[in-house]
UniProtKB/TrEMBL annotation:
Gene3D superfamilies documented for this protein: 2-enoyl-CoA Hydratase, Chain A, domain 1, Lyase 2-enoyl-coa Hydratase, Chain A, domain 2
Protein name: enoyl-CoA hydratase
Organism of this sequence: Sphingomonas abaci
NCBIfam families, per database record: PRK05862.1 (NF004517)
Tagged with keyword Phosphoprotein: no
Pfam families reported for this sequence: ECH_1
GO biological process: fatty acid beta-oxidation
InterPro entries (alphabetical): ClpP/crotonase-like_dom_sf, Enoyl-CoA_hydra/iso, Enoyl-CoA_hydra_C
Length: 258
């Protein structure tokens, strides 16, 4: 496995477990971490033995935000000319699923990266927030848009305007996270969930992710049409024949990835 300055990466069977590892800064997201994460995701995407990734942090912090010390002295011209944060878009283009396993603080960019993942499993210790307003700025990695889509205008607006944190129970009620798990079991449960996903037919994994994401990018009629076309397309795969035959024969499918 490659070594990274800001990440620990291990393979657990078909699951790539990526742990953010800048404990001295509560996993604040700096340029090195983005570069390491994109490199790790490229390895994950290219490795046919890997079906799903889990992105996690420490018990105290998933990530406490973008690195404030890296941004403090920057001016508008630097931020705009370098299109600061645009590199994160590449992370969202990962085609295989990525689960965020959030324990402790997911603030600012930390909350935004969790929301870039396909779904969030939260420890009961998790705290989500967009406190950028307290720094005189706004979210900059998509947080205002993804949070509003995830929890609706009222909560998103309140959180962005006050900077208050949501605990795990509120985040689950609001639909920001799919499930809350006791903190001690978070990573194991996330890896188990990821292994379940990785055991599905590879083309169906890609298609399901792509079509659910499409719901956020388009209107209902176009989204339903897109879903139906991808669904039709899978009937050209060997794994559709295998999956349906296996059901009829009362056995598990043996996937070929085509
Ligand atoms: N950037 C850089 N360093 C950070 C950081 C961040 N976002 N968050 C924490 N750290 C550093 C602290 O400076 C501290 O370093 P030193 O020991 O060198 O002083 C170390 O991590 C430990 O942090 P604290 O001592 O503050 O820990 P705490 O337990 O007292 O508080 C906390 C925890 C409430 C999360 C607090 O650290 C905090 O409020 N962090 C900042 C949260 C924040 O504002 N995030 C948004 C950042 S802006 C952003 O993300 C923009 C965007 O849209 C992408």
């Amino acid at each position: 496995m490659a070594e990274y300055q800001t990440l620990l990466v291990e393979q657990r069977g078909p699951v790539t477990l990526v742990t953010l590892n800048r404990p001295e800064a509560l996993n604040a997201l700096n340029a090195q971490l983005l570069s390491d994460l994109l490199a790790a995701m490229a390895v994950f995407e290219a490795d046919a033995t890997q079906g799903c990734a889990v992105l996690t942090g420490s018990a105290k912090a998933f990530a406490a935000g973008a690195d404030i010390k890296e941004m403090q002295a920057q001016g508008f011209a630097d931020m705009y000319a370098h299109d600061f944060f645009a590199g994160w878009d590449q992370f969202t283009r990962t085609r295989k699923p990525v689960i965020a396993a959030v324990g402790g603080y997911a603030l600012g960019g930390g909350c935004e990266v969790a929301m870039m993942c396909d779904f969030i499993l939260a420890a009961d210790s998790a705290k989500f927030g967009q406190p950028e307003i307290k720094l005189g700025v706004t979210p900059g990695m998509g947080g205002s848009q993804r949070l509003a889509r995830a929890v609706g205008k009222a909560k998103a607006m309140e959180m962005c305007l006050t900077g208050r944190m949501m605990d795990a129970a509120e985040a689950e009620r609001a639909g920001l996270v799919s499930r809350v798990i006791p903190a001690a079991d978070l990573v194991e449960e996330a890896v188990k969930t990821a292994a379940t996903i990785a055991g599905m037919a590879p083309l169906a994994i890609l298609a399901n992710k792509e079509m659910v994401n499409y719901a956020f990018e388009t209107g209902l009629a176009a989204g339903v049409q897109f879903e139906r076309r991808l669904f039709h397309g899978l009937f050209g795969s060997a794994d559709q024949k295998e999956g349906m035959t296996a059901f009829v024969e009362k056995r598990s499918g043996q996937w070929r990835g085509r």
